[in-house]
């Protein structure tokens, strides 16, 4: 039992570590890119973001349900000793989803003009064309990621994610600097920048193909406990029955993000708000390039945890090991709260100072939007974990209903709030927070009903929340005292130093309070590398 739980946590840790590396690389890409082609006067970053949103929506339609569905099937077949069926499952998945990815790439490339017009940004056409081949590359990646995740081997997925990020950093940013140096127009700058995403996906897909070839050559004989292999048609039916609902539930939010682009642009240009098309796209660029960029950081970590949760719970249920199901759910929800509560509070307390550390302009608007998104951070993380849990329980329909209801709330909220001059662009993060909390609460209700219990509220939420409250108060006091005593002007070196010191104080206070409130167990720490030594050092019982 302990070894299986350790495999789950180690898999999650591997993906979290990779996600952190990816986000660091992404910061080295996004921050200078925003400073280079974004800001309050340039629409180029908005075009880049719009093209990326279109690509993400197409990706959701074509492949997003595949890794989760495939990992679930592979995990269940492996738990039952059906090795021959595992291989057939992977072949069936490739024969379905790779052609679908190719068709979506073609549709995105030749329909780029139509997509760009639909989001009220015709100049984004070239950027959409440049990113179109990425859909096919991700379809290939998804097949192999689903297989390896089903085997609880998260390393290939982690490495491929880092390769994708490195492609964006070196190729995308390099092309952006070149295009700006040559004095190209905003549409061309956006297109050359987004080309880095495509080339990163190409290299990642090539790595995964090479990894699969090496795995096949080095494969050791596996004891087959069950020779049964279902027909390819039956496996395809099961795969589609799992992946399509997952795809739809994920695509609901992705398509909502796509509609978000059109709504933000259109509503900011409404008579009540009165922005021009260029101003609307520049404002959208600040929202996505600054506020959303930081908002995605804790989400990335929790997504890694959710990827590990699904096959772990699915295989435990297949083996009728309900104790493992309960412990996995408890661990994942507690880690979710421990990670996201302080992140959301940090957004509320230090949003604008953090942005001033990194960006030259637009930080006042970006900070206001980022602070509002702080309320949504724990909710988005809960949605990722609870969706994966319900999918592992075999109730793929329930997240679909929750996500659809949340999407409706978000769209109506966007339409009415953004078009109201009292809110403007702030309506987007407000509706996002309401949307995700609705989904999270609905999913938790379903999990409690299906499992007949949820983990203890005090240990899962109460203790991390108390530690977060103490951290938030200490951070606010520290930053306020430093800036007033030192007389720091916004954006000055002293202001930035005060922000960094306040962040360090926040980390230290939060760590101490977690230990003092016994929010972390010795058993949890022992599952980490060198966990026994760390637990002894911290004197955990």
From TrEMBL:
<feature type="transmembrane region" description="Helical">
    <location>
        <begin position="190"/>
        <end position="214"/>
    </location>
</feature>
<dbReference type="Pfam" id="PF01943">
    <property type="entry name" value="Polysacc_synt"/>
</dbReference>
<keyword id="KW-0812">Transmembrane</keyword>
<dbReference type="InterPro" id="IPR024923">
    <property type="entry name" value="PG_synth_SpoVB"/>
</dbReference>
<feature type="transmembrane region" description="Helical">
    <location>
        <begin position="165"/>
        <end position="184"/>
    </location>
</feature>
<keyword id="KW-1133">Transmembrane helix</keyword>
<dbReference type="GO" id="GO:0005886">
    <property type="term" value="C:plasma membrane"/>
</dbReference>
<keyword id="KW-0472">Membrane</keyword>
<feature type="transmembrane region" description="Helical">
    <location>
        <begin position="51"/>
        <end position="71"/>
    </location>
</feature>
<feature type="transmembrane region" description="Helical">
    <location>
        <begin position="424"/>
        <end position="445"/>
    </location>
</feature>
<feature type="transmembrane region" description="Helical">
    <location>
        <begin position="465"/>
        <end position="487"/>
    </location>
</feature>
<feature type="transmembrane region" description="Helical">
    <location>
        <begin position="12"/>
        <end position="31"/>
    </location>
</feature>
<feature type="transmembrane region" description="Helical">
    <location>
        <begin position="499"/>
        <end position="520"/>
    </location>
</feature>
<feature type="transmembrane region" description="Helical">
    <location>
        <begin position="124"/>
        <end position="144"/>
    </location>
</feature>
<feature type="transmembrane region" description="Helical">
    <location>
        <begin position="331"/>
        <end position="349"/>
    </location>
</feature>
<feature type="transmembrane region" description="Helical">
    <location>
        <begin position="369"/>
        <end position="388"/>
    </location>
</feature>
<protein>
    <submittedName>
        <fullName>Polysaccharide biosynthesis protein</fullName>
    </submittedName>
</protein>
<feature type="transmembrane region" description="Helical">
    <location>
        <begin position="301"/>
        <end position="319"/>
    </location>
</feature>
<keyword id="KW-1003">Cell membrane</keyword>
<dbReference type="InterPro" id="IPR002797">
    <property type="entry name" value="Polysacc_synth"/>
</dbReference>
<dbReference type="InterPro" id="IPR050833">
    <property type="entry name" value="Poly_Biosynth_Transport"/>
</dbReference>
<feature type="transmembrane region" description="Helical">
    <location>
        <begin position="92"/>
        <end position="112"/>
    </location>
</feature>
């Amino acid at each position: 039992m302990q070894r299986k739980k350790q495999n789950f946590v180690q898999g999650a840790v591997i993906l979290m570590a990779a996600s952190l590396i990816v986000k660091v690389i992404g910061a080295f890409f996004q921050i200078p890119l925003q400073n280079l082609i974004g800001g309050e006067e340039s629409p180029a970053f908005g075009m880049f973001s719009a093209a990326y949103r279109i690509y993400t929506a197409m990706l959701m339609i074509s492949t997003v349900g595949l890794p989760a569905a495939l990992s679930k099937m592979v995990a269940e077949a492996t738990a039952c000793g059906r090795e021959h069926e595992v291989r057939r499952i992977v072949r069936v998945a490739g024969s379905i989803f790779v052609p679908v990815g190719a068709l979506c790439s073609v549709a995105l490339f030749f329909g780029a003009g139509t997509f760009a017009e639909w989001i009220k940004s015709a100049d984004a056409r070239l950027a959409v064309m440049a990113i179109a081949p990425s859909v096919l590359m991700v379809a290939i990646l998804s097949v192999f990621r689903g297989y390896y995740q089903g085997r609880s081997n998260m390393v290939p997925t982690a490495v491929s994610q880092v390769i994708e990020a490195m492609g964006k950093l070196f190729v995308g940013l390099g092309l952006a600097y070149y295009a700006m140096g040559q004095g190209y127009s905003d549409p061309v700058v956006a297109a050359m920048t987004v080309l880095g995403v495509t080339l990163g996906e190409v290299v990642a897909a090539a790595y995964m193909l090479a990894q699969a070839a090496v795995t096949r050559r080095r494969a050791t004989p596996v004891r087959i406990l069950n020779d049964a292999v279902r027909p390819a048609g039956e496996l395809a039916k099961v795969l589609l029955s799992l992946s399509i609902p997952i795809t739809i539930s994920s695509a609901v939010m992705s398509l909502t993000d796509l509609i978000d682009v059109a709504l933000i642009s259109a509503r900011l240009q409404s008579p009540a708000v009165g922005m021009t098309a260029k101003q609307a796209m520049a404002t959208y660029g600040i929202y996505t390039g600054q506020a959303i960029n930081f908002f995605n950081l804790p989400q990335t970590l929790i997504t890694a945890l959710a990827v590990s949760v699904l096959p772990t719970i699915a295989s435990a249920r297949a083996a009728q090991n309900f104790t493992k199901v309960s412990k996995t759910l408890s661990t994942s929800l507690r880690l979710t709260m421990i990670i996201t509560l302080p992140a959301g509070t940090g957004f509320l307390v230090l949003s604008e100072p953090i942005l001033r550390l990194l960006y030259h302009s637009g930080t006042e608007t970006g900070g206001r939007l980022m602070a509002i998104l702080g309320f949504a951070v724990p909710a988005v993380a809960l949605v990722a974990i609870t969706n994966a849990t319900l999918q592992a329980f075999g109730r793929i329909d329930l997240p679909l209903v929750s996500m659809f209801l949340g999407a409706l709330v978000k769209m109506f909220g966007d339409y009415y709030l953004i078009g109201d001059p009292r809110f403007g662009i702030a309506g987007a993060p407000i509706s996002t927070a309401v949307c995700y909390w609705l989904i999270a609460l609905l999913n938790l209700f379903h999990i409690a009903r299906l499992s007949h219990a949820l983990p203890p509220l005090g240990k899962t939420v109460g203790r991390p929340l108390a530690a977060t409250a103490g951290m938030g108060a200490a951070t606010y006091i520290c930053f306020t005292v430093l800036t007033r005593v030192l007389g720091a002007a916004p954006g000055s070196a002293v202001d930035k130093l005060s922000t960094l010191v306040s962040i360090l104080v926040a980390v230290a206070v939060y760590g101490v309070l977690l230990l003092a409130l016994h929010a972390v167990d010795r058993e949890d720490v022992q599952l980490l590398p060198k966990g026994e030594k760390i637990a002894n050092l911290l004197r955990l019982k």
